[in-house]
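Design a sequence for this backbone.
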């Protein structure tokens, strides 16, 4: 027996919204044998736009029973039957959530008439209930009301049962089948193609736009985990509705997958990726020349197109680095914006410091250049050579002077003899501090996979203060 369900609600997710109407059609596999329908008082105001859509007003539900008063009847109509709905995960999430709040644990198999329609009747211009029914000639006199939509879904389901020449419905009901947990608009073939390897996967919307990028040690297993569970929150419901297609790219290792994910999030800026959009360090150490020709160092917020001498996780982090440089290279704390008062300079030179005009700009600037060069030399240049996507290749990640340069794949027979040579085989990517720290931490844990390299000497150049 099948229980064909449709509900009207006050909003899009169960945990913060109520049901205003429910209709259940009990179907024996040939026809509807029993109907149940009732308005429900959701215990909260129905938004105006939903009143306009459904025609259900606050006045209509004022005297209706609350859900707990009808939970017994609803539970016993559904339990032991197969729960059927158009976009079943939406209706099921609401009913299960509110039954649980009333003390009933609903456990039943599910069937989605959106997914079944795509399989049994491919090529339709739309699979929304209204447009699909109009296209195949099913009349719905109560659109956006639970009774009318449940009756239309029941008629659609009868047609699907009749047309199911390839046994899509019995296959979907098999215990091993995860068909009904998938998003309503996602075809099973995309899941079947996913490999059990490290890599990055992409969820696309109806127009092909990437709405989410993820990384995994096992792509197939990780993607499946997105669709398990019964999370009834707004974000998950919205997320599931937007998934129409999945693509992927394999990576040699989990680290390569992590870095590729970070690159792709910055490139594509998917709407459902939130965690990595604010992971960059916000400060940097900059150098500029003042009006008297003295080079100065300062910690400042990162700005677009500015290139800091060094990146910092915080203002305090940057100040601590400057304090070390001041002490090691006898720099002026005033010229490093550490000492901001008008008293005598607290640096090693004291009253004869550059800030008092007792050192020529060329002499002082030489110390600043030495400090910058010392800071750069303290930043490592190395490659991580690790497993590839196939047996005859290796993955390779390059850090140059403490900054992420890029990554790629090289032959397992390729000998890394120089930095310049290696760069010709890798793809540069715009890195960030999150990526750099990830590689640094991995190198610290896996020193045998590191290849130390000599930095390429380049003439130093400095940006003006307007860039800082």
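Sequence:
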């Amino acid at each position: 027996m099948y229980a064909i369900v449709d509900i009207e609600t006050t909003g899009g997710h169960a945990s913060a919204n109520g049901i205003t109407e429910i209709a259940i059609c009990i179907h024996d596999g040939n026809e509807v044998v029993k109907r149940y329908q009732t308005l429900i008082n959701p215990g909260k105001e129905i938004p105006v736009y939903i009143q306009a859509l459904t025609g259900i007003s606050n006045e209509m539900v004022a005297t209706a029973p609350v859900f707990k008063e009808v939970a017994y009847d609803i539970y016993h109509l559904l339990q032991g039957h197969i729960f059927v709905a158009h976009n079943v995960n939406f209706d099921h999430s609401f009913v299960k959530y509110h039954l649980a709040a009333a003390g009933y644990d609903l456990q039943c198999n599910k069937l989605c008439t959106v997914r079944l329609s795509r399989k049994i009747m491919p090529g339709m211009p739309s699979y929304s209930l209204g447009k699909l029914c109009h296209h195949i000639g099913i009349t719905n006199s109560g659109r956006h009301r639970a009774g009318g939509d449940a009756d239309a879904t029941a008629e659609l389901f009868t047609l699907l049962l009749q047309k199911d020449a390839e046994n899509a419905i019995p296959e979907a009901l098999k215990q091993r089948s995860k068909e009904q947990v998938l998003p309503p608009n996602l075809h099973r073939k995309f899941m079947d193609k996913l490999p059990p390897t490290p890599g990055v996967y992409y969820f696309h919307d109806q127009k092909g736009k990437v709405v989410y990028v993820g990384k995994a040690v096992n792509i197939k297993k990780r993607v499946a985990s997105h669709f398990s569970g019964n999370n009834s929150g707004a974000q998950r419901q919205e997320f599931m509705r937007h998934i129409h297609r999945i693509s992927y790219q394999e990576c040699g290792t989990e680290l390569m997958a992590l870095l590729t994910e970070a690159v792709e999030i910055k490139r594509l800026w998917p709407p459902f990726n939130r965690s990595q959009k604010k992971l960059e360090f916000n400060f940097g150490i900059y150098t500029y020349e003042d009006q008297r020709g003295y080079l100065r160092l300062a910690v400042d917020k990162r700005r677009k197109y500015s290139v800091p001498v060094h990146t910092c996780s915080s203002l305090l982090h940057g100040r601590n680095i400057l304090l070390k440089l001041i002490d090691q290279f006898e720099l002026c704390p005033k010229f490093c914006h550490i000492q901001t008062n008008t008293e005598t300079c607290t640096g090693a030179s004291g009253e004869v410091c550059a800030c008092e005009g007792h050192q020529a700009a060329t002499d002082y600037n030489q110390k600043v250049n030495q400090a910058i060069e010392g800071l750069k030399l303290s930043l490592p240049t190395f490659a991580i050579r690790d497993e590839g996507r196939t047996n005859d290749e290796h993955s390779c990640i390059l850090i140059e002077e403490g900054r992420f340069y890029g990554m790629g794949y090289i032959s397992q027979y390729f000998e890394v003899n120089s930095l310049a040579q290696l760069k010709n085989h890798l793809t540069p990517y715009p890195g960030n501090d999150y990526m750099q720290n990830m590689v640094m931490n991995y190198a610290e844990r896996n020193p045998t996979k590191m290849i130390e390299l000599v930095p390429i000497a380049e003439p130093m150049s400095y940006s003006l203060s307007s860039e800082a």
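Confidence is low (pLDDT under 50) at residues 459-468.
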